[in-house]
Design goal:
By secondary structure, the chain is an alpha+beta fold. The protein has a single domain, classed as Outer membrane efflux proteins (OEP) (Up-down Bundle). It is built from nine helices and six strands; from the N terminus they run H-E-H-H-E-E-H-H-E-H-H-E-E-H-H. The strands form two sheets. The protein has a four-stranded antiparallel sheet, with no helix packed on it. Strand 2 and strand 3 form a beta hairpin. Helix 3 packs antiparallel against helix 4, helix 4 packs antiparallel against helix 9 and helix 8 runs antiparallel to helix 9. The chain is elongated and about 150 Å long.
């Protein structure tokens, strides 16, 4: 589907982006090409950096310990001090009095707790963490695609504006030559003041056109700088060359979209996660069995007392079982809602598939028609250039009027601008085909 050249371009950009990712600044080349623009965007783009942070969070969460599958170990310790007067009397010892009796106690324990069974809830939780991690990888891939497509759209917008500016300057050069020709003719009595004034008005109109086109170009460059994460005032020329791929078919695009499209893959993961949520909820109706083991030590020293010290240490273990018998049908309601959530996600998956099939077909149609428009505009441009050259020669010989010359000039300029815009629009449509069919970064 995707040509070897374009596949290698994207892969090279992704590899370079990985090396550059996280750097604060990039060297701005004097001549920017699409590959370099994508590399810089992958290193600097703000949305991509935030998506990477979210991906790392999902990777951190994906662990057996975070799912409750590992035991918990705790240590505790403490000490206490007391000082008190005491008095006691028994039939055997008689009256016993103690003044200022003090005691100092120490204690410590180590305890391990482990859930043996909770209706498999912790195992389903671990599976959910894995699926969430995988879904976040897909979302990161989707952000990569969006970033690359945004770069492509903005980059070719700059290319179009740059070419339009060149054409406006060329048109100005032609108008100056015409103005000089009319002035020379007037000097020999072959023209009149009206023709000179018309030529001057057209020359001023071209000057205005240059200013408008230059403004559009500068604004387009600033838009690209924002997408690339560069300083807004960064300045460079862009490489305008492009090449089309010709190996697309609607059936292949639609088929790949239903298998590889990142939005659909993300939704399928969401459906799997929702199903695991339902299983986790159902686990709440089963008993929870937990075990613990503990070693404890304590010692108390006495002063001014009949006892000198007391000490204890030893190991204890046990099992516990808990079962929710009735909680006002809350468990039943949670299960019902979890089931409804799953049904909703399944409906959403079907909805996304239907919309994706339509969007993929429309994207192919859009690309096909844009390619046909390019071919038509190319023929129109060639005809407009030929018409202008012939009119120019006739004007030199005095066989064409200034109005005819200007009409041919404007027609050539407009058609050439339309051809350039059509080429770049078609190339953006081609990249959109790659995105929707899941081929842009694969």
């Amino acid at each position: 589907m995707i040509s070897f050249k374009d596949r290698m371009l994207v892969l090279a950009c992704l590899m370079m982006g990985g090396l550059l990712f996280g750097q604060k600044s990039q060297t701005v080349p004097s001549m920017m090409n699409l590959q370099k623009a994508i590399e810089i965007a992958l290193a600097n783009n703000y949305d991509l950096k935030m998506a990477e942070n979210t991906l790392k969070q999902a990777q951190n969460n994906n662990s057996v310990g975070n799912a409750g599958l590992l035991p918990s170990v705790s240590l505790s310790g403490g000490s206490d001090y007391s000082k008190a007067d005491s008095e006691s009397e028994t039939t055997y010892t008689g009256l016993l009095e103690s003044e200022g009796a003090t005691s100092m106690g120490y204690n410590g324990s180590a305890r391990i707790d482990y859930t043996l069974f909770d209706g498999l809830g912790n195992q389903y939780t671990y599976k959910k963490l894995k699926q969430t991690d995988e879904r976040q990888n897909i979302l990161f891939q989707q952000q990569l695609e969006n970033t690359i497509l945004s770069v492509v759209q903005t980059y070719y917008g700059v290319c179009s504006a740059q070419q339009n500016l060149k054409l406006a300057k060329e048109s100005m050069k032609i108008s100056k030559e015409r103005y000089q020709k009319v002035v020379d003719r007037k000097a020999y009595g072959q023209s009149n003041t009206l023709e000179v004034l018309n030529a001057e008005v057209d020359m001023n109109s071209d000057s205005t056109q240059i200013l408008n086109t230059e403004q559009n170009y500068l604004m387009a460059v600033k838009d690209l700088n924002v997408v690339l994460g560069l300083p807004v005032d960064s300045d460079y020329a862009v490489d305008e060359k492009l090449q089309f791929n010709n190996d697309f078919s609607e059936a292949q695009i639609v088929g790949l979209a239903l298998v590889k499209n990142s939005s659909l893959l993300s939704q399928l993961k969401t459906e799997e996660i929702t199903e695991l949520d339902m299983k986790i909820t159902k686990a709440g109706k089963y008993p929870t069995i937990a075990a613990y083991g503990q070693y404890a030590y304590s010692k108390t020293d006495y002063e001014n007392s009949t006892s000198i010290y007391s000490q204890s240490n030893g190991f204890s273990t046990g099992l516990s079982l808990s079962l929710n018998v009735f909680n006002g049908r809350q468990q039943h309601i949670r299960e019902q809602n979890a089931q409804l959530n799953l049904l909703s996600e399944q409906e959403r998956t079907r909805q996304i598939k239907a919309a994706l099939e339509r969007d993929a077909a429309n994207a192919y149609t859009d690309y096909s028609y844009k390619r046909r428009i390019v071919e038509l505009q190319e023929r129109s441009m060639e005809q407009a250039k030929l018409n202008f050259e012939q009119t120019k020669e006739m004007f030199k010989l005095g066989n064409a009027t200034s109005i005819e010359f200007r009409t041919a000039q404007e027609n050539m300029l407009n058609v050439t601008n339309q051809y350039n815009d059509a080429r770049y629009n078609a190339k953006v449509a081609e990249y959109n085909l790659l995105r929707i069919s899941g081929q842009l970064t694969r």
